[in-house]
Amino acid sequence: MAKKIQPIERCDCDVIHEEIVNKVREKMPQEETLYDLAELFKVFGDSTRIKILWALDESEMCVCDIAFLLNMTQSAISHQLRVLKQAGLVKSRREGKIVFYSLEDEHVKQIFDQGLIHISEESK
Amino acid sequence: MAKKIQPIERCDCDVIHEEIVNKVREKMPQEETLYDLAELFKVFGDSTRIKILWALDESEMCVCDIAFLLNMTQSAISHQLRVLKQAGLVKSRREGKIVFYSLEDEHVKQIFDQGLIHISEESK
DNA sequence: AACACACTTGAACAATTACTCATATGTTTT
DNA sequence: AAAACATATGAGTAATTGTTCAAGTGTGTT
Fold first, then answer.
1. Cβ within 8 Å, pair B111-A111
2. Would you say B123 and A33 are in contact if contact means Cβ atoms under 8 Å apart?
3. Name one GO molecular function term (chains A, B) (predicted).
Protein backbone atom coordinates (compact mmCIF):
# COMPACT_ATOMS: atom_id res chain seq x y z
CA MET A 1 0.00 0.00 0.00
CA ALA A 2 2.06 2.95 -1.25
CA LYS A 3 1.57 6.03 0.87
CA LYS A 4 0.57 9.17 -1.01
CA ILE A 5 3.46 11.58 -0.73
CA GLN A 6 2.30 15.13 -1.09
CA PRO A 7 4.96 17.84 -1.37
CA ILE A 8 5.08 20.05 1.71
CA GLU A 9 3.59 23.44 0.96
CA ARG A 10 5.98 26.26 1.66
CA CYS A 11 4.56 29.10 3.71
CA ASP A 12 5.41 32.78 3.48
CA CYS A 13 7.92 32.71 6.25
CA ASP A 14 9.92 29.98 4.54
CA VAL A 15 10.55 32.40 1.73
CA ILE A 16 11.53 35.10 4.17
CA HIS A 17 13.77 32.73 6.14
CA GLU A 18 15.17 30.98 3.11
CA GLU A 19 18.75 31.97 3.87
CA ILE A 20 18.60 30.53 7.37
CA VAL A 21 17.03 27.28 6.21
CA ASN A 22 19.63 26.83 3.49
CA LYS A 23 22.48 27.54 5.87
CA VAL A 24 21.12 25.01 8.36
CA ARG A 25 20.61 22.43 5.62
CA GLU A 26 24.25 22.70 4.60
CA LYS A 27 25.44 22.14 8.13
CA MET A 28 23.21 19.15 8.87
CA PRO A 29 25.04 15.81 9.13
CA GLN A 30 24.22 12.99 6.75
CA GLU A 31 20.74 11.55 6.99
CA GLU A 32 22.22 8.15 7.84
CA THR A 33 24.32 9.51 10.69
CA LEU A 34 21.30 11.13 12.29
CA TYR A 35 19.34 7.91 11.88
CA ASP A 36 22.11 5.87 13.53
CA LEU A 37 22.28 8.38 16.34
CA ALA A 38 18.55 8.03 16.96
CA GLU A 39 18.88 4.24 16.90
CA LEU A 40 21.60 4.41 19.53
CA PHE A 41 19.60 6.66 21.84
CA LYS A 42 16.56 4.44 21.35
CA VAL A 43 18.55 1.68 23.02
CA PHE A 44 19.19 3.95 25.99
CA GLY A 45 15.52 4.91 26.08
CA ASP A 46 14.33 2.04 28.24
CA SER A 47 14.78 1.86 31.99
CA THR A 48 15.44 -1.88 32.00
CA ARG A 49 18.32 -1.45 29.59
CA ILE A 50 19.59 1.59 31.48
CA LYS A 51 19.64 -0.49 34.66
CA ILE A 52 21.45 -3.35 32.95
CA LEU A 53 24.08 -1.03 31.55
CA TRP A 54 24.53 0.68 34.88
CA ALA A 55 24.93 -2.67 36.62
CA LEU A 56 27.46 -3.87 34.06
CA ASP A 57 29.40 -0.67 34.50
CA GLU A 58 29.94 -1.76 38.10
CA SER A 59 30.77 -5.37 37.40
CA GLU A 60 30.65 -8.16 34.85
CA MET A 61 27.55 -10.22 35.60
CA CYS A 62 25.74 -13.33 34.39
CA VAL A 63 22.17 -13.30 33.10
CA CYS A 64 20.53 -14.72 36.19
CA ASP A 65 22.44 -12.33 38.46
CA ILE A 66 21.04 -9.42 36.48
CA ALA A 67 17.57 -10.96 36.53
CA PHE A 68 17.75 -11.32 40.30
CA LEU A 69 19.17 -7.83 40.77
CA LEU A 70 16.38 -6.24 38.75
CA ASN A 71 13.68 -8.65 39.89
CA MET A 72 12.81 -9.67 36.34
CA THR A 73 12.66 -12.95 34.44
CA GLN A 74 15.77 -14.36 32.79
CA SER A 75 13.89 -14.32 29.51
CA ALA A 76 13.15 -10.62 29.67
CA ILE A 77 16.76 -9.85 30.56
CA SER A 78 18.07 -12.11 27.81
CA HIS A 79 15.93 -10.34 25.23
CA GLN A 80 17.26 -6.97 26.34
CA LEU A 81 20.86 -8.17 26.42
CA ARG A 82 20.40 -9.15 22.81
CA VAL A 83 19.33 -5.61 21.96
CA LEU A 84 22.30 -4.19 23.83
CA LYS A 85 24.68 -6.58 22.10
CA GLN A 86 23.34 -5.71 18.66
CA ALA A 87 23.90 -2.06 19.48
CA GLY A 88 27.51 -2.86 20.32
CA LEU A 89 27.10 -1.80 23.94
CA VAL A 90 27.79 -5.12 25.69
CA LYS A 91 29.80 -8.25 25.00
CA SER A 92 29.47 -11.77 26.39
CA ARG A 93 31.79 -14.53 27.47
CA ARG A 94 30.79 -18.11 28.18
CA GLU A 95 32.17 -20.04 31.16
CA GLY A 96 30.57 -23.46 31.21
CA LYS A 97 26.84 -23.08 31.62
CA ILE A 98 27.13 -19.47 32.61
CA VAL A 99 27.31 -16.50 30.22
CA PHE A 100 28.91 -13.37 31.60
CA TYR A 101 28.09 -9.97 30.15
CA SER A 102 30.15 -6.81 30.35
CA LEU A 103 30.29 -3.37 28.75
CA GLU A 104 31.76 -3.23 25.26
CA ASP A 105 33.26 0.23 25.64
CA GLU A 106 33.71 3.03 28.09
CA HIS A 107 31.53 5.63 26.41
CA VAL A 108 28.40 4.32 28.07
CA LYS A 109 29.10 6.00 31.37
CA GLN A 110 29.96 9.25 29.63
CA ILE A 111 26.66 9.25 27.74
CA PHE A 112 24.85 8.61 31.04
CA ASP A 113 26.72 11.45 32.70
CA GLN A 114 25.68 13.94 30.01
CA GLY A 115 22.08 12.82 30.45
CA LEU A 116 22.29 13.19 34.21
CA ILE A 117 23.65 16.72 33.85
CA HIS A 118 20.57 17.65 31.85
CA ILE A 119 18.23 16.06 34.38
CA SER A 120 19.83 17.85 37.30
CA GLU A 121 19.74 21.18 35.44
CA GLU A 122 16.08 20.73 34.74
CA SER A 123 15.04 20.08 38.33
CA LYS A 124 16.51 23.40 39.49
CA MET B 1 -6.86 -6.63 35.70
CA ALA B 2 -4.13 -7.14 38.28
CA LYS B 3 -1.11 -8.86 36.81
CA LYS B 4 0.07 -11.94 38.66
CA ILE B 5 3.46 -11.12 40.12
CA GLN B 6 5.50 -14.20 40.69
CA PRO B 7 8.72 -13.81 42.66
CA ILE B 8 11.80 -14.37 40.52
CA GLU B 9 13.33 -17.74 41.34
CA ARG B 10 16.96 -17.44 42.35
CA CYS B 11 19.30 -19.79 40.54
CA ASP B 12 22.43 -21.39 41.91
CA CYS B 13 24.79 -18.83 40.50
CA ASP B 14 22.91 -16.02 42.22
CA VAL B 15 23.86 -17.60 45.50
CA ILE B 16 27.44 -17.97 44.38
CA HIS B 17 27.59 -14.40 43.08
CA GLU B 18 25.61 -12.94 45.94
CA GLU B 19 28.43 -10.64 47.01
CA ILE B 20 28.76 -9.10 43.56
CA VAL B 21 25.01 -8.61 43.21
CA ASN B 22 24.76 -6.95 46.60
CA LYS B 23 27.67 -4.66 45.90
CA VAL B 24 26.16 -3.62 42.56
CA ARG B 25 22.77 -3.07 44.18
CA GLU B 26 24.29 -0.65 46.68
CA LYS B 27 25.95 1.37 43.97
CA MET B 28 22.90 1.63 41.69
CA PRO B 29 21.34 5.10 41.53
CA GLN B 30 17.78 5.68 42.62
CA GLU B 31 15.08 3.91 40.64
CA GLU B 32 13.55 7.28 39.78
CA THR B 33 16.81 8.71 38.46
CA LEU B 34 17.27 5.77 36.11
CA TYR B 35 13.68 6.11 34.94
CA ASP B 36 14.14 9.83 34.23
CA LEU B 37 17.34 9.08 32.36
CA ALA B 38 15.54 6.54 30.17
CA GLU B 39 12.75 9.06 29.52
CA LEU B 40 15.31 11.64 28.41
CA PHE B 41 17.04 9.26 26.02
CA LYS B 42 13.68 8.14 24.68
CA VAL B 43 13.22 11.71 23.44
CA PHE B 44 16.54 11.49 21.60
CA GLY B 45 15.54 8.11 20.20
CA ASP B 46 13.69 9.39 17.14
CA SER B 47 15.35 10.66 14.00
CA THR B 48 12.81 13.43 13.44
CA ARG B 49 13.50 14.85 16.87
CA ILE B 50 17.24 14.40 16.42
CA LYS B 51 17.02 16.39 13.19
CA ILE B 52 14.97 19.13 14.83
CA LEU B 53 17.43 19.43 17.69
CA TRP B 54 20.37 19.47 15.35
CA ALA B 55 18.73 22.18 13.24
CA LEU B 56 17.93 24.28 16.30
CA ASP B 57 21.52 23.95 17.44
CA GLU B 58 22.47 25.79 14.26
CA SER B 59 19.81 28.46 14.44
CA GLU B 60 16.54 29.51 16.00
CA MET B 61 13.77 28.53 13.59
CA CYS B 62 10.01 28.76 13.20
CA VAL B 63 7.75 25.72 12.83
CA CYS B 64 7.20 26.00 9.11
CA ASP B 65 10.90 26.50 8.45
CA ILE B 66 11.61 23.23 10.23
CA ALA B 67 8.79 21.52 8.37
CA PHE B 68 10.20 22.70 5.06
CA LEU B 69 13.76 21.79 6.02
CA LEU B 70 12.76 18.24 6.97
CA ASN B 71 10.09 17.88 4.28
CA MET B 72 7.40 17.06 6.81
CA THR B 73 4.00 18.51 7.67
CA GLN B 74 3.73 21.40 10.10
CA SER B 75 1.47 19.25 12.23
CA ALA B 76 4.01 16.48 12.59
CA ILE B 77 6.72 18.96 13.52
CA SER B 78 4.44 20.73 15.97
CA HIS B 79 3.67 17.45 17.72
CA GLN B 80 7.37 16.67 18.07
CA LEU B 81 8.21 20.17 19.26
CA ARG B 82 5.69 19.62 22.02
CA VAL B 83 7.54 16.48 23.10
CA LEU B 84 10.86 18.31 23.03
CA LYS B 85 9.43 21.20 25.01
CA GLN B 86 8.00 18.92 27.67
CA ALA B 87 11.41 17.30 27.98
CA GLY B 88 12.90 20.73 28.61
CA LEU B 89 15.05 20.56 25.49
CA VAL B 90 13.59 23.46 23.53
CA LYS B 91 11.88 26.76 24.27
CA SER B 92 9.62 28.94 22.16
CA ARG B 93 9.09 32.63 21.56
CA ARG B 94 6.18 34.17 19.75
CA GLU B 95 6.62 37.02 17.28
CA GLY B 96 3.25 37.87 15.81
CA LYS B 97 1.90 34.87 13.98
CA ILE B 98 5.24 33.13 14.01
CA VAL B 99 6.58 30.98 16.85
CA PHE B 100 10.33 30.59 17.00
CA TYR B 101 11.91 27.60 18.67
CA SER B 102 15.41 27.32 20.05
CA LEU B 103 17.43 25.01 22.28
CA GLU B 104 16.76 25.30 25.98
CA ASP B 105 20.30 24.49 27.03
CA GLU B 106 23.74 23.64 25.71
CA HIS B 107 23.90 20.01 26.85
CA VAL B 108 22.10 18.76 23.77
CA LYS B 109 25.15 19.05 21.55
CA GLN B 110 27.31 17.34 24.17
CA ILE B 111 24.93 14.40 24.39
CA PHE B 112 24.97 14.15 20.59
CA ASP B 113 28.76 14.23 20.57
CA GLN B 114 29.02 11.34 23.03
CA GLY B 115 26.63 9.35 20.88
CA LEU B 116 28.62 10.12 17.74
CA ILE B 117 31.81 8.95 19.43
CA HIS B 118 30.19 5.58 20.08
CA ILE B 119 28.93 5.29 16.50
CA SER B 120 32.33 6.10 15.03
CA GLU B 121 34.04 3.63 17.37
CA GLU B 122 31.63 0.93 16.33
CA SER B 123 32.19 1.30 12.61
CA LYS B 124 35.92 0.70 12.99
C1' DA C 1 22.04 -41.67 28.23
C1' DA C 2 19.11 -38.99 31.11
C1' DC C 3 18.70 -35.05 33.70
C1' DA C 4 19.41 -30.38 35.49
C1' DC C 5 20.94 -25.89 34.80
C1' DA C 6 21.88 -21.34 32.36
C1' DC C 7 20.52 -19.21 28.72
C1' DT C 8 18.20 -18.19 24.07
C1' DT C 9 14.52 -17.69 20.97
C1' DG C 10 9.92 -17.29 18.59
C1' DA C 11 5.12 -16.25 18.93
C1' DA C 12 1.57 -13.65 21.13
C1' DC C 13 -0.23 -9.66 23.37
C1' DA C 14 -0.79 -5.21 25.50
C1' DA C 15 1.03 -0.75 25.53
C1' DT C 16 3.21 2.99 23.34
C1' DT C 17 4.23 5.96 19.53
C1' DA C 18 4.76 8.87 15.14
C1' DC C 19 2.19 10.43 11.79
C1' DT C 20 -2.19 12.06 9.26
C1' DC C 21 -6.36 14.39 9.00
C1' DA C 22 -9.66 17.56 10.56
C1' DT C 23 -10.49 21.14 13.46
C1' DA C 24 -9.36 24.77 16.84
C1' DT C 25 -6.64 28.84 18.55
C1' DG C 26 -4.20 33.10 18.23
C1' DT C 27 -2.47 36.83 15.40
C1' DT C 28 -2.32 40.02 11.45
C1' DT C 29 -4.29 41.97 7.29
C1' DT C 30 -8.03 43.53 4.60
C1' DA D 1 -15.90 41.77 10.97
C1' DA D 2 -14.05 38.57 7.72
C1' DA D 3 -10.33 36.31 5.70
C1' DA D 4 -5.68 34.61 5.77
C1' DC D 5 -1.86 32.82 8.04
C1' DA D 6 1.07 30.20 11.55
C1' DT D 7 0.61 27.05 14.83
C1' DA D 8 -1.60 23.74 18.16
C1' DT D 9 -4.36 19.89 19.32
C1' DG D 10 -7.45 15.71 19.50
C1' DA D 11 -8.85 11.45 17.42
C1' DG D 12 -7.61 7.69 14.61
C1' DT D 13 -4.34 4.35 12.77
C1' DA D 14 -0.40 1.56 11.45
C1' DA D 15 3.90 0.28 13.20
C1' DT D 16 6.96 -0.67 16.88
C1' DT D 17 8.19 -2.43 21.35
C1' DG D 18 8.74 -4.83 26.12
C1' DT D 19 7.26 -8.55 28.43
C1' DT D 20 5.39 -13.28 29.07
C1' DC D 21 4.98 -17.99 27.96
C1' DA D 22 6.48 -22.14 25.94
C1' DA D 23 9.83 -24.50 23.73
C1' DG D 24 14.57 -24.73 22.16
C1' DT D 25 20.02 -24.98 22.55
C1' DG D 26 24.34 -25.75 24.85
C1' DT D 27 26.93 -27.31 28.88
C1' DG D 28 27.86 -30.01 33.03
C1' DT D 29 26.45 -33.77 36.31
C1' DT D 30 24.66 -38.18 37.60
1. yes
2. no
3. DNA-binding transcription factor activity
Report how far residue A90's alpha carbon sits from residue A68's, in angstroms, rounded to the nearest whole number. 19
Is residue B19 situated within a structural domain? Answer: no
* Three-state DSSP class for residue A4: coil
Q: Is the ipTM of this complex over 0.85?
A: yes
DSSP assignment of A34-78 equals HHHHHHHHHHHSSHHHHHHHHHHHH--EEHHHHHHHHT--HHHHH
Please state whether strand D lies within 7 Å of residue A75 at its CB atom. yes
pLDDT of A37 > 60? The answer is yes
Q: What average pLDDT does range A40-45 have in this prediction?
A: 98
pLDDT in tens, B44-63: 999 999 999 999 999 999 99
- Which residues 50-109 in chain B have a CB closer than 7 A to strand C? 72-73, 75-76, 79-80, 83, 94, 96-97
Q: Name the domain count of chain B.
A: 1
Q: How many angstroms separate the CA of residue A36 from the nearest CA in chain B?
A: 7
CATH number assigned to the domain comprising residue B62: 1.10.10.10
Residue A12 belongs to some domain of the structure: no
Does residue B108 belong to any structural domain of this protein? yes
